[in-house]
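Hi F.,

I've been meaning to write this up properly since the lab meeting, where we talked about keeping a consistent format for the predictions we share between groups. The idea is simple: the sequence comes first, exactly as it goes in, then the structure tokens exactly as they come out, then a line or two of notes. No screenshots and no reformatting. I'm using this chain as the first example so we have something concrete to point to.
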Amino acid sequence: MSYQQCFERLANHFLNRWELYNSDVPVAWGNTPFTPPAPPSPWVRFSVIPGEADYISAGAPGRNIVRHAGLITVQVFVPLGDGDGRLCSLVDDVIPIFQGERVGENVWCGAAYAVALGESLSPGWLQANVNVPFHRDEIG
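Output, unedited:
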């Protein structure tokens, strides 16, 4: 599975589940133009960050398992002044989408955790990130 295929699989998994409960909260995608809602209302940004790869088995060349690690990050934004409740609620909605999930045949997600960042670098927003480590295995 390529990096692009992995991203697409994870993005589709996220979007399908996110829209079930939060279809009114828009999703920003990396390297794609996005304008936050006006008047200000919650929104999220989805990213997949590839990590290191390593052999996790020994054997004949071309028949070993290569494990690719990565991190799914969903940045959650709510307008400043809306209180922490909405931010926490959206974080709580993101976590079960990936935590402990197997996405497709060979992508496994670990424990999700949130990082409260306070005021975003983009003025006017309160931000928290939900991070989910994952790995995918392939024969290489």
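Notes:
The mean pLDDT is 91.
The chain is about 25% helix and 40% strand.

If this format works for you, I'll send the rest the same way.

G.
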